[in-house]
Automatic annotation (TrEMBL):
It comes from Runella salmonicolor. This is Ig-like domain-containing protein. It comes from the Bacteria.
Length: 921
């Protein structure tokens, strides 16, 4: 202590007597080297490793490693982290010339954690390692053997995992044959004392092996394809058969990578393991996919599949032959299909734009994987995308016009084959002919007003399609209408005088320009209209009345009705008949009493007679008199007074028959008067509310009741009144004048419900007039800009407001110009912004054809531009003024949206997409 104090005193003396030795000294700190690799060590309990951990670096490029401050003193931090940098003395690592080294962590009580590393660039890599304890309960089997200097194993070497691969299965056994030459990743022999580490891996437990499990969400990420360097698609494990880690090194921690003879690994498997591609349980001879993970390069590799075979005890076992050492996973996987199945339509249906329901059905679960609509014209191909490799599906198409359902054959989701689907059971689309063919009558007969019976029949089936009566004079043209298309028809005429029948030639039902001659020369002269007709004089003892009675003219022999009419039946009234022909024959006149069951029938007489015959109304009752004053109903209502009218009915209280129908207002206190009733009638007044479905029904009351009755309509909803004048918005815009249409919406300010959708130009000063709005609500006008995510929203205004309201669209972007001969197609979504993560695709494929033609033509694909609310393209394939059919979808052949018979009136075609599924919330 005295020496220390003396030294301090001397130092202070020097400092006080001499110039400060620190003057002019600049303090410089070394710039740290960038971290190339950081390794975080844990115990299985998730704790930091013991402080006495030793770090050893081995391998051909271990001398290139330094600490971040350019030392060789490699230490583990208190929280278990190791940071390594690459020196600046040698070449930088590349994919062609990587740095290879091994990091070994040694600590008593734990299995050595040996990490191979291959760095092909200078990007920082982070690795987490789990220290596995030693002992009889260790999950890692450590075994040793020896190999010659040339790397040849001295004896047959067999190692077993301490625990089964999977519960209820056997442990895994790895066998290396004597004489097998072992080499490292650089193809150098690995000789000397060999240490093997072999363990079963539970991929559901991240700390089950010394590596943090590289399988996340049961997914093997982009494994390199077998026999190549190209990356495949992600493989999602559906059934894990087994996973294990095998690692071998010598005393210098030179790691074995390859073996001259396959290292055979075997373990038992459950006989209930399901083979998804064969759709059955596994059996001997089946192959099961195998994947390896190289911890040095952090890459997955697709390997030669292992096979299922029968073990000596009769059980099933999985055998794999390993050409190198890694972490291995055997199991069935699935992946998104690059190419899905296609279905070629075989159909006899006429070409049409009719859309049919299509469903892609999972055979195993019955779940509908995809639902869409498509045309099903003959030869059309429906392509299915987005399926997974373990899915076996059928395409189900339902007849849009009938009950038929057609299912395809079973096909794998990744099958690129084209399968035919026969839709011959589907019904043809029924289309009505706007005009049909004409038939010109050729006849030698004199003109007559006699009406012949005509029948339209199907030319193939003879089924009757129409029947009617009309004259058939020479040169008259009988034209058909209202027939279904896609059929040929004939016109058949029957002569009532003779047995002659004339049938036309077949003609297309829609042949509006056709005019076929129908020759009825074989017909006989038709009966002539009667020159005279019978007269009946009413004989009645009843008092005169304005009541009407029902009369019928019937055939005397068959009692078939020829005519029916109503007339008064007062004493002395004359009933004159007419409209009969010479062949009508004997007739009778029959009249009914509406108060009793009495009826009177005249004697038979010839239809062409001119005699006057008395018709005596015997046993008829005296009709009650008509009410001298109307029946009144006073309305009880809590509705506001308005001119809205409601449907009313006068109901017969005895029969519930409707006697009168009319419309009237129902303001409170208003009296509804009903005329034309009779004293014997008991009635009710019924009023219906169209808004709510409510019905007001009065009490039953006599038709001549003088007292005003009450009818209560307080259950009726307040009527929705329409604004008398349109709501007008004046546009404030900086856009150049154009005829470009923008999507507009009128929304309720309270509920935010969309009331109207339409399109409008947005030239500065334009007036947007909105008619048909309901009163008593506040609304806003909302307009979307297809060029950006901008949205213009007006202030909330009364729907019936007068004067011009303002809508400001100065935030909208100027759309790019369209060159002469070009057309812009925009698919506009009703969103403030699209949720790009929700979009099923960022590229849409479209096609078009002129309406009425068969040949579809492909359009350039529409690629989504981030930040916009629409897909758009500009093309010179369309022509303004023509009418087109248009389809678009996420892949060629999968068109989920269509527009039919659209007349392209201008070069800016904006199509509003109704769904809000892809909008940001």
């Amino acid at each position: 202590m005295k020496r220390i104090l003396l030294f301090i005193g001397l130092l202070l003396g020097v400092v006080s007597a001499c110039k400060n030795p620190l003057d002019g000294l600049e303090l410089r700190f070394k710039k740290p080297y960038p971290v190339a690799l950081d390794v975080q060590y844990y115990t299985v309990e998730g704790k930091a490793p013991p402080e006495n951990m030793e770090v050893i670096l081995a391998g051909p490029d271990a001398n290139r490693l330094i600490t971040t401050v350019n030392t060789k003193k490699f230490r583990i931090s208190s929280d278990g982290a190791l940071f390594l940098s690459i020196d600046s003395l040698g070449p930088r690592p590349t994919a062609q010339n990587p740095l290879r080294f091994t990091v070994v962590a040694k600590v008593p009580g734990f299995v050595d954690a040996v990490l191979p590393v291959e760095m092909g660039n200078e990007n920082q890599r982070s690795v987490a390692l789990i220290l596995q304890p030693t002992g009889t309960t260790s999950a890692v089997k450590v075994a040793q053997s020896t190999a010659s200097r040339s790397g040849s194993v001295d004896r047959d070497w067999s190692v077993e995992t301490p625990t089964p691969i999977i519960a209820n299965q056997s442990v895994a056994q790895a066998s290396i044959a004597k004489g097998t030459q072992l080499k490292d990743v650089a193809a150098k022999e690995v000789g000397g004392t060999l240490t093997a580490r072999f363990q079963a891996v539970d991929i559901n437990k991240s700390n089950n092996t010394f590596l943090i499990n590289p399988i996340v969400n049961q997914t093997i990420t982009k494994p390199i394809l077998r026999g190549g360097t190209a990356e495949g698609t992600n493989q999602q494990l559906t059934q894990v058969v087994g996973a294990f880690l095998l690692q071998i090194h010598n005393e210098q921690y030179q790691l074995v990578k390859t073996a001259s003879q396959p290292i055979r690994v075997r373990f038992s498997v459950s006989p209930q393991l399901y083979h998804p591609l064969e759709r059955r349980v596994i059996q001997a001879g089946d192959e099961i996919p195998l994947f390896s993970y190289d911890a040095a390069t952090e890459k997955w590799q697709t390997e030669t599949p292992g096979k299922v075979q029968k073990a000596s005890n009769g059980d099933l076992e999985y055998v794999a032959e390993l050409s190198h050492l890694s972490l291995w996973v055997a199991g069935f996987t699935k992946q998104k299909c690059d190419t899905g199945p296609s279905f070629k339509i075989k159909s006899s249906l006429p070409t049409t734009n009719l859309q049919y329901q299509c469903e892609v059905v999972n055979e195993a679960t019955g779940a509908r994987l995809q639902v869409f609509k498509s045309t099903v014209n003959n030869g059309e191909i429906i392509k299915i995308n987005g399926l997974e490799s373990d899915q076996f599906v059928r395409l189900r198409i339902t007849d849009a016009l009938g009950t038929a359902v057609v299912n395809s054959q079973l096909v794998n989701g990744c099958s690129g084959e084209v399968q035919e689907m026969d839709l011959s059971s589907f019904k043809k689309q029924i289309q009505k002919c706007p005009n049909g063919p004409g038939f010109k009558i050729k006849s030698p007969l004199p003109n007559s007003d006699y009406r012949y019976s005509f029948v339209v029949i199907n030319a193939e089936t003879n089924a009757q399609l129409q029947s009617f009566q009309t004259t058939a004079n020479n040169n008259e043209v009988v034209r058909l209408s209202g027939l279904d298309s896609d059929q040929k028809v004939r016109l058949r005429i029957t002569d009532i005088v003779s047995s002659a029948v004339v049938t036309s030639e077949p003609v297309d039902a829609c042949a509006s320009n056709a005019e076929l001659v129908v020759d009825i020369s074989s017909f006989k002269v038709p009966p002539q209209r009667c020159a005279n007709s019978p007269v009946f004089r009413i004989s009645s003892s009843l008092p005169n009345s304005d009541r009407s009675y029902t009369f019928e003219v019937i055939k005397a022999d068959t009692k078939a009705r020829l005519q029916v009419f109503q007339s008064s039946a007062n004493n002395g009234d004359v009933i004159r008949l007419g409209g009969f022909y010479e062949n009508t024959g004997m007739i009778q006149l029959r009249v009914f009493d509406f108060l009793s069951s009495a009826q009177v029938v005249s004697n038979p007489l010839d239809a062409c007679t001119n005699v006057t015959t008395p018709l005596v109304l015997e046993n008829f009752k005296v009709p009650p008199p008509k009410c001298t004053s109307p029946l009144g109903f006073r309305v009880k209502s809590n509705l506001p007074n308005s001119g809205a009218t409601y449907q009313c009915q006068v109901i017969n209280a005895a029969t519930n028959g409707v006697m009168q129908t009319f419309a009237t207002t129902v303001n409170n206190g208003e009296i509804i008067r009903i005329n034309g009733l009779y004293s014997e009638q008991t009635v009710r007044l019924k009023i219906m509310d169209n808004q709510s479905g409510a019905v007001a029904l009065s009490a039953a009351v006599g038709g001549c009741t003088a007292t005003v009755q009450e009818i209560d309509v307080t259950s009726f909803k307040k009527p929705i009144l329409k604004c008398a004048n349109p709501l007008v918005f004046s546009v404030k815009s900086t856009l150049p004048t154009s005829d470009r249409a923008y999507n507009c919406e009128v929304i309720n300010d309270v509920t935010k419900a969309k009331i109207q959708s339409f399109q409008s130009t947005l030239n500065n000063g334009n007036l947007i007039k909105i008619s048909g709005l309901d009163a008593d609500q506040k609304v806003r006008l909302r307009i979307y800009d297809s060029q950006s995510s901008a949205i213009a929203l007006s202030a909330a205004v009364d729907a019936c407001a007068t004067g011009n309201q303002a809508i400001d669209v100065t935030s909208f972007k100027i759309p790019p110009n369209i060159k002469p001969g070009e057309v812009r197609i925009t698919l506009q979504f009703p969103c403030k912004a699209l949720d790009e993560d929700k979009l099923p695709t960022r590229e849409l494929f479209g096609r078009f054809r002129e309406t009425g033609t068969l040949q579809w033509k492909n359009l350039p694909s529409m690629k989504y531009i981030s930040g916009q609310t629409a897909f758009s393209i500009v093309t010179d394939l369309l022509e303004v003024g023509k009418t087109y059919d248009f389809q678009v979808g996420p892949a060629p052949g999968y068109f989920s949206f269509s527009e039919s018979a659209y007349k392209l009136r201008k070069a800016d075609w904006v199509i509003e997409i109704e769904t809000t599924e892809y909008c940001k919330l």
